[in-house]
UniProtKB/TrEMBL annotation:
GO terms for biological process: transmembrane transport. The chain crosses the membrane at residues 7-29, 65-89, 110-128, 134-157, 178-203, 235-255. It is found in: Cell membrane. Belongs to the binding-protein-dependent transport system permease family. CysTW subfamily. PANTHER family: PUTRESCINE TRANSPORT SYSTEM PERMEASE PROTEIN POTI. It is a multi-pass membrane protein. The lineage of its organism: Bacteria, Bacillati, Bacillota, Clostridia, Eubacteriales. It holds the Pfam family BPD_transp_1. This is ABC transporter permease. Keywords: Cell membrane, Membrane, Transmembrane, Transmembrane helix, Transport. GO terms for cellular component: plasma membrane. PROSITE patterns: ABC_TM1. It comes from Candidatus Acutalibacter pullistercoris. It comes from the Bacteria.
């Protein structure tokens, strides 16, 4: 009886979480000229067709993907370097750096967005140039993605045998080559996971982007601007596309992690034998 109750409880939680998304997806195929969420008029793909014929939406999509790719690459490189540096620190400095790293993750996004906006405006006052735009968006996205990359790479560094790097150097391998031949393959799953997380977070972000975008529009900002006017069923189609993209990325991350577990188990068993 207790198991039945616990399963019912879990089902109700998932229903509460995903029922609104399911309704949104279903009505993105609704053949209607209004954004009705209660009347089903028939199946149609016309809102997806109109979505990909809208020049403003396509421009926002291009901006979003460009920012996400650059932010993911930048935060992955910087985050991997930071994780290696933090891992090599002593206990007390490492704890301090981990607290500094975790702070942006628990800090309210609106505080981060406003502070970054003020920073960019202040920097423009000192050095000149454009205050807010594509550059400020990319810098802001790299900033809030960095902690997630660091926390994805650090566990892989801790799992790695610290003597491997030194052994490679003892065998005549230069430090840089030893890093790319020995360390990088060991921490590659963490780097890939961090990069995918950074890409997903960048696509999904609204609050920080809203304060640092200037006149540049991303998809979340464009969706918000659409809701302030007459609500179009294109929002349902656009939200469905975003949800599907994020879902695919999360599935890729989980599949990679599931494949890594048997390899780690075999490696441990081989080392113990």
């Amino acid at each position: 009886m207790r198991k039945v109750g616990s399963r019912l409880y879990v089902c109700l939680i998932f229903l509460f979480l995903y029922a609104p998304i399911l309704v949104l997806i279903v009505f993105s195929f609704n053949d209607t000229e209004t954004a009705s969420r209660t009347v089903w008029s028939g199946f149609s793909l016309k809102w997806y067709q109109r979505l990909f014929e809208d020049r403003l939406i396509l421009e926002a999509l291009r901006n979003t993907l460009l920012i996400a790719v650059i932010a993911a690459l930048g935060s992955t490189v910087l985050g991997t370097m930071a994780a290696i540096g933090i891992n090599s620190m002593k206990k007390l400095p490492r704890r301090i750096m981990m607290n500094v790293t975790n702070f942006p993750m628990v800090n309210p996004e609106i505080v981060t967005g406003v502070s970054l906006m003020l920073l960019f405006v202040f920097a423009v006052g000192l050095f000149g140039g454009r205050s807010l735009g594509m550059g400020s968006l990319i810098a802001a996205h790299i900033t809030f993605c960095l902690p997630y990359v660091i926390l994805s790479v650090l566990p892989k560094l801790r799992q790695m045998d610290p003597n491997l790097y030194e052994a490679a150097q003892d065998l005549g391998c230069p430090p840089v080559r030893a890093f790319f031949r020995v360390v990088l393959p060991e921490i590659a799953p963490g780097i890939v996971t961090g990069a995918i997380m950074a890409f997903t977070l960048s696509i999904d972000d609204f609050v920080i982007s809203y304060f640092t975008s200037g006149t540049t529009q991303t998809l979340p900002i464009y969706i918000y601007s659409m809701t302030r006017r007459r609500i179009s069923p294109e929002i349902n189609a656009l939200s469905t596309v975003l949800f599907a993209a994020v879902l695919v990325l999360l599935v890729i991350v989980n599949v990679r992690q599931a494949k890594d577990r048997p390899r780690k188990r075999e490696k441990r068993e081989g080392e113990s034998a």
